[in-house]
Amino acid sequence: MTSQRVTIGTRPADPVSPASSGGPLPDRGPLVDRFGRVHRDLRVSVTDRCSLRCTYCMPEAGVPWLPRDTMLTTPELVHLAGVAVSLGIDEIRLTGGEPLLRRDLVDVVAGLAALDPAPEISMTTNAVGLAKNAEALVAAGLTRVNISLDTLRRETFIELAKRDRLKDTLEGIEAAAAAGLTPVKLNTVLMRGINDHEAPDLLAFALEHGYELRFIEQMPLDAQHHWDRSQMITGEEILGLLTPHFDLTPLPDEARGSAPAELFLVDGGPATVGVIASVTMPFCGTCDRVRLTADGQVRNCLFATGETDLRTPLREGADDEALADLFRESIGAKLPGHGINEPGFLQPPRPMSAIGG
Ligand code: SAM
Ligand code: SF4
Predict the structure, then answer these.
(1) Residue 98: CB within 6 Å of ligand 2?
(2) Of the residues 56, 90, 145, 193, which has the maximum number of CB atoms within 10 A of its CB?
(3) Spatial separation of the C-alpha atoms in residues 294 and 139, rounded to whole Å
(4) What is the CB neighbour count within 10 angstroms for residue 343?
(5) How far is the CA of 319 from the centre of ligand 1 (A)?
(6) Residues of 60-72 as b/e, b for ≥16 C-beta within 10 angstroms?
(7) Residue 105: how many CB atoms within 10 A of its CB?
């Protein structure tokens, strides 16, 4: 227990100024943008469908799914990922929607694991159904998972995710640990008046089981466009909810690298807790991520309003150099920051579930 005041923001201000227009782009070579950011992390959305309906992500009904014939087949997805790997991508994270809803997910993982050089393959999932598949996914080459867990209470889970699946998620978390997908990371989005009071319980749960918990500020990426800054639990508030119960010591920035979570040792360590303050403390200056949607569009930022179509050229027979140029073109157009805190910010038309979080 501590009464010490802990704040986020140990890292210096974002090194890329939103006003900067950046420098020239290399014609060839790895995915470097105008601000010198080297892109190594590809997030691939394998489906926009989901087994849950978390209110900060999807409405309960009426979501217009991507038409099936626009979705990349597994060979197409692996082909595009191979082009990305040739451009220096060394980590591929599968996401969605809910990746476990993709029937041939094991084949996707196996195809990615066979790329040369082989990227590290991880997945962000709600873990519903993971208990059945964890071992097969590990055998195919999956090495890590981030599992979303916003509450430990059944009623709150139903309120938040509109489905009665807490038990499945908890079983999935256990199965991930048993299958060796360790350290299991848990992601929590806190919502005011709904699950914010559970922050200490969630951390205690993670500590008890050896999971690494990270709290994420809610971002304006819900399909309903209902995000309201005043309802967001900020990183500062998250720390305020935890410090009456735990001693938190900020870890130096080197422990974080390009990862978005600011890390704190809990009760002297070795366990840590992370806070991803994407809105109040943007980390765009160290962003190394690029995204591929389930329908084959490259997005250079979660908040990008434009996309680069790779599906059409791929289906029309474009060669790998042409596809690589399209990846470079997308990275070349990347803005210095997400702009959420700028006056003219516009939420992207695609919701989080169709972008791939
Ligand atoms: N269905 C999987 C899951 O929930 O983990 C993968 C996709 S989900 C879009 C990826 C992550 O994005 C989850 O951790 C989820 O909590 C987070 N997320 C979704 N909408 C968000 C929002 N509006 N703000 C912050 N995080 C969000
Ligand atoms: Fe589904 Fe993940 Fe969105 Fe929740 S956050 S609705 S689990 S895609």
Answers:
(1) yes
(2) 145
(3) 24
(4) 5
(5) 34
(6) eeebeebeeeebb
(7) 23
Question: Residue of the nearest CA to atom 3 in ligand 2?
Answer: 57
Nearest to 94 by CA among 65, 115, 120, 124: 124
* Of the ranges 59-63, 154-158, 276-280, the best mean pLDDT one: 154-158
Q: Ligand 2: distance of its center to the CA of 353 in Å?
A: 6
Q: What share of the chain is helix, strand, coil (3-state, %, to 5)?
A: 30, 15, 50
To the nearest whole number, what is the mean pLDDT of the chain?
90
Q: Which residues pair with 291 in a beta bridge?
A: 43, 299
In DSSP terms, 144 is beta-bridged to: 122
Q: Is the pLDDT higher at 217 or at 261? A: 217
- State the number of CA atoms in the 13 A half-sphere of 31 facing the CB: 30
Distance (Å) from CA 117 to ligand 2 centroid: 31
Q: Where are the domains of the chain?
A: 41-355
What is the arrangement of strands in the sheet containing 272-276, beginning at the earlier edge strand?
Answer: 248-250, 262-266, 272-276, 212-216, 185-189, 144-148, 120-125, 91-96, 41-47, 289-292, 297-299, 308-309
CATH class of 41-355: alpha beta
Instruction: For ligand 2, pick from 55, 98, 221 the residue to mutate: most ligand atoms within 8 Å of CB.
Output: 98
Neighbour count for residue 49 (Cβ, 10 Å): 19
Rounded to two decimals, the pTM is 0.92
172 phi and psi angles, rounded to 5 deg: -65, -40
pLDDT tens, position by position, 149-163 = 999 999 999 999 999
Q: Which ligand lies nearest to the CA atom of residue 146 in the structure?
A: 1
CA distance readout (Å), 270 to 40, 144, 177, 265, 267: 28, 20, 18, 7, 8
User: Ligand 2, from 46, 49, 53: best to mutate by most atoms within 8 Å of Cβ?
Assistant: 53
